[in-house]
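Hi R.,

Here's the chain you asked about this morning:
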Amino acid sequence: MRLPCTLVLLLFVLVKVTNAEAGSSVPQGVVDSWSYLIGNWDVSGEVGSTSVKGKAAFEWGAGKSCYLGKQVWQLGPDEIEVQLALIGGWDAAASQIVEYGFASSGESGAVHYVTPPQNEFGRLIEGRIDGVNEKGERWNGDVTVDRTGPNEFRLTTTIDGEVVHSLKYVRRDDGDGAQTR
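And here is the predicted structure, written out as tokens:
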């Protein structure tokens, strides 16, 4: 079930990389481009040919040194639950965001992201994912995260040119008045 793990990793990477507070090695531009992803999201889409619906939440770690993400998805008509945990941060040596993710289905993965030039909407990040499925088999692919509106983004994972994840994230209005970021 390599699809949920990839999505989890991607989603958490989208949340935010790290902070540009005093002493942080994270470039301010990286922090700025990711800050809108922190928050609560509704998730919908497909993993392979299986429908997905769920929720995601991203928050800063202590001192904004990393981001933490948790996602809970229901897969298919039987609504099989998969939980995902992510942690992402800045790799100063490689000048890139690295995200690690783990799924309750037994999958895990690491995404190495690069941040393309920014505009209001469009590509936020793209990267390469290396994963391990529940059987211990290795796989790899490409991940893109595209901001499609002020409160939504799309995560897409491809393996050998085939789209294996296509997920839409829409910011939830949890009554705090801070839906648009």
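One quick note: Residues 61 and 165 are 27 Å apart (CA to CA).

Cheers,
M.
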